[in-house]
Amino acid sequence: MEFGVYTLADIGPNPYNGQTISAKKRIQEVIAAAKLADELGLQIFGVGEHHRLDYAVSSVPVMLSAIAQQTKNIHLTSTTTVLSTVDPVRLYEDFATLDLLSDGRAEIIAGRGAFIESFPLFGYNLEQYNELFEEHLELWQRLNKEERLSWQGHLRASLQNAEISPRATKEIPTWIGVGGTPESAMRAGRFGTGLALAILGGNPHYFVPLVEAYKREFIAAGHPKEKYKVAVTGHGYFTEDGHQARKEFYAYYKNYWGYVNKQRGMSFHLNRESFEKMTGPNTALFVGSPDEVVEKILKQHELFGHTRFLAQLDIGGQPFETVTHSMELLATKIMPQVNQYIKG
Fold first, then answer.
1. Residue 46 in contact with residue 5, Cβ under 8 Å?
2. What is the pTM of this model?
């Protein structure tokens, strides 16, 4: 199984001291985290796209290009690209450039994203979300394979024998991020992309139908079996002692969902008892000791057969040292145990 980490570069106050770092400092920390992930031998580093003042990264390919110059081996992916509100030609040009800068390490995870501010910002109609996503995805896949093409859609200007430059070292691996809708999972199967499950809580069994729907559509479309890929992504916090991990993470987790829901115009309340239930052994929240997290990953592997695990470790205004400690445990304790078990 491949292991990695991702960040949305949210800028939130530290719940213990109330301090909020600047966007510049947040970006510096993201680059430092990527460099550490590479040095630790993790395989994937992802950066998310937002267009709000409380997030530090809006231009993912620019950010990943900076990271490419500080790393050597780790693959670099968007988590996620809001595909409905980006022009596919520009997207391909940017990620092909990243691919060349990184010696073939570029990937994308495409999805709707958690917010909708990019629709009015870039002049797209939110009511056309599905049509935009499918049209942009179809064009993206053509661009990913053809250096010169003609194309006709409904929502974007046509292309006539257009030259698409530069060319990446190979087809850029593409995944669709799915939070819980069968339609999105079916779309990933129909288009033959990877499926990246965003499992942020609850019982993992609820996501089994999504994987099954993805697999059915993938097989029905006749895609090559080597393109069938399932990844699991989710929130994580790791310390040597599971009780200590839950004790420390509670404030960060409560803080994170507090300001995220406030951004959406919603209130959020989480008491300690509810949090303890959310981090139980049969739930999807990856909080605890390395052994506890290994057990959760392996249980999910039995359900989904996934070959990639990505943890979001920096939510809720955490200081950088707690994030790096979780990363170190992921690379040195969790990843080896999981892969040893899977190999038998």
1. yes
2. 0.96
Cα–Cα distances in angstroms (integers) from residue 258 to residues 30, 147, 175, in the given order: 22, 46, 29
- CB 158, CB 135: distance < 8 Å: no
Question: CATH no. for residue 251?
Answer: 3.20.20.30
Which pLDDT does position 110 carry in this prediction? 97
- Quote the pLDDT of residue 113: 77
Helix spans in the chain (H): 23-40, 60-68, 88-101, 118-121, 129-145, 182-191, 208-221, 242-263, 272-278, 290-304, 320-329, 335-343
Confidence of residue 154 (pLDDT cuts 50, 70, 90): very high
Helices (H) and strands (E) in the chain, counts: 12, 12
Query: Into how many domains does the chain fold?
Result: 1
Inter-CA distances, 162 with 125, 141, 146, 149, 215, Å: 26, 15, 10, 5, 34
Q: What is the pLDDT of residue 267?
A: 79
Q: Which domain holds residue 239?
A: 2-136+168-343
